[in-house]
Each structure stands twice: as C-alpha cells, then as structure tokens.
Amino acid sequence: xxxKNGNITRKKACSILSDVIDNHLTFDAAFSKHTKGYNTSxxxxxxxxxxxxxxxxxxxxxxxxxxxxxxxxxxPIKKLPNNPKMALRIGIAQIFILKTxxxxxxxxxxNIVTVRWRGLVNAVMRNLIREKDxxxxxxxxxxxxxxxxxxxxxKNWPNDYVDFVxxxxxxxxxxxxxxxxxxxxxxxRLNARILPNNILRLKDSGIISNKPGYQDGxxxxxxxSSQLAVKCLKIQKGEEILDLCAAPxxxxxxxxxxxxxxxxxxxxxxxxxxxxxNMNRLKFYPTIIITDILKFKTEKKWNKILxxxxxxxxxxxxxxxxxMYSKNDNALKNLVGLxxxxxxxxxxxxxxxxxxxxxxxxxxxxxxxxxxQDFLKKNKNCEIDKISPTEIDESEDIITxxxxxxxxxxxxxSVKSRDGFFIAxxxxxx
Length: 430
Hints:
Elements: H1 3-21, H2 27-35, H3 45-72, H4 82-96, H5 102-111, H6 115-130, H7 132-141, H8 147-156, H9 161-168, E1 176-179, H10 183-189, E2 192-195, E3 199-202, E4 219-221, H11 224-231, E5 240-244, H12 250-257, E6 261-266, H13 269-282, E7 287-290, E8 302-308, H14 323-326, H15 329-348, E9 350-360, H16 369-378, E10 382-384, E11 405-407, E12 421-428
Parallel strand pairs: 5-6, 5-8, 6-7, 8-9
Antiparallel strand pairs: 1-3, 1-4, 2-3, 9-12, 10-12, 11-12
Helix pairs in contact: 1-2, 1-3, 1-4, 3-4, 3-7, 4-5, 4-6, 5-6, 11-12
C-alpha cells in the first residue's frame, strides 16, 4: 500500500473510532460517513476493507489496548488528547492483532498525528516494540471487555460469559446464508458447509456481493440463529404474515421463500431503503409499509406475527464489537421500555388463537426472559406455545424448560459458533 494511501486509511480509521467511542455512533454509520461521499474517491475497495478490519480489530481489543497504553504513558490515557490517543490505539492493534511490520505500524501512527504529538507517539511505539513480549503479556492479562458489560454477563451468565468474551475476539467471524432452493448446489458453488436446519455457512471470506449467485438473488446473508425465528412460526404456503420491525429484511425473505404473503412494517427510512434493495435483488415482493408501529392503524387481524424488536444486540458483538462502546446500561433501559410498548401494540393486531414470535439478538435477559415473563403476568389471554425439539434440529442446548429458545454464542454440537438470540412463541387465547 503506497505511503499516502496508508496515511489516509489510518486517518479515516481514527475518525471512525472517534465517532463511535466519543460520539456513540454505530460502527456502520461512522464507517459510511467517512468512506462514502464526494471526498472519498481516492479510497479503493481494498482500502475500505482494510479500514473496516483495522477499526473492528481495535473495537474487539480496545479495553486491552488502553490497558497497555496506560503502562506506556506517564499519565492516564484519558488525559491524552484524541488525536495521539487514536494513533496509539491503531498502532498497537496493527502490531499485536494484525501483525503489521513494525516500521509500517510506527510510521503510519506517527504520520497521522499533529506535529506536536509526533515525538510522543514515536517514542511510545518504539518503546512498545523494544519490550514487545512484556507488553504482549500485559495485553492478554488485562480485562477484555468494558466493566459495564462484564458485570452484567458475570451476573446473568456465570457459566457462559467466558465464551461470550472469546467470541468477540474472532477477527474473521463466520458468515451464514439462506438460499431460495437447491442448497446442495450452492453448498458446492460457494464452498460452504451445511448446518442443521438447512443453513449454509461460508468457509471463505471476501466481498459478499462478488460471490456467485448473490447478484442473481439466489441467496442472502442471515445468521444461523436469526433463521430459527421464522422456522418456529411453522409457515404454510399462502399464509399471511405481519412482519414488524422488518428491515433490513432477512426474515421477510425467509418467509416469502416458504410461500408466505408478507406485510413488512418498519419506520427507519434508511433501513427500509436497504429492505427494498434486498427484496428487488431477490425478486421478492412483500407489501412494505413505512411507519412507526406504535402509530400503525389497521382493522385487519393476523393469525401469525413476527416481532423482531430493536435491542442492545449483544448477541451479535462478534460481528459488531462497537456495541461495547456505542451502547450502555441506559440504552438498555430505554430499549426495554420500547420493547414493552411494541409487544403490547403488536398483540392488538393478533387474532384469537393466533401466534406471535417475539425475538431479538440480545443476550440480556431483560430483553428476553424477563420481558416475556412480565408480559405473561399482565396479559391473561397470552400463553407460551412451547417450541418442541421436533421443530428444530440440534435443539437440545437451546430449548429451555419454559419452552422458548435461548441461543448462546457457543453451541455444544456442530454449530459451535453463532449469534446470541432469544425466541418465544406466544399464543393468544380467548
């Protein structure tokens, strides 16, 4: 990579990191902001891929990186200005995580800071390299995730939180896909592995849109755990399904592929734009309504509804490590309140004897188990329709005694790596 481009990519990485860590943007929003637009024509797809890898690597190890920096500085890192702080973070990530040659890691870190801080960054990086083994040991002895999240997981998942943390530090997390048909054909063409429940897992990384069949709409990206939610709805051909919080559309596509007539509702215009693009590529044609579900008015009642609520998304941290820094306990509290309202409103759209799938990609019990327990107490016309082991392949480690699914990040059998997920099937009684 030419020197100029090397500096540009690192500067972009610093801006993205700052927007996520300091301004609480999502990684996707910050990445789009700094790699698209009138002034980014000099950034190639290869450069963008590197920026994404570098930023995600920093997020995966940020707590540890800052721990090391505190040993390298005479003052705590929090007192260091943003510009040299970000340069040191990406420099350490390059050396310890991406295995970048030492001279390149030092030079790019020095070149992206203002003149005032170049001496400090150069000295710190060279000190790190001189005693690399010492600081590598400190990197791996340090806390691996922020305290707010570690405390939650230790309390709620004392036997599993170590697995959660390990999953975060997978530099190249798995990619699962759903196919319209001919799964054996696409297994071969994509060099994929067939998982239980007829789900494909790609063995090779690379740009998804360049892979065979993608542009032709033969398949779409959707994690193993996410695909289980639709499977639990037991869709019959021709059934009408209401899909709430539908964008970007993985579950919508899955339901249509099974023969359902789907009405998809979401209020986020950017995500609905992505939903439309995905449906057009797949040649699927749901009815799409852009509105706030809490304001959605309809006389129609549905026999089956899928509600995939907004959540803290901690089950997807392996792919979205920025969640540890863009979210917090206050965000969780706000989301739980919104989920209560969405569930209550969605329930009003359901026919008697109808079924509603409540799901999300969070590992937080307030968004799953506790949310459903509270709803059952307040709604006497609601009962759990227990999910049977005959409905889900390899279900023994995910179906709970309550009859809902709690999917953790590490499976016991063939699907050892997956997103965390919660799925409950509710029945409306008379």
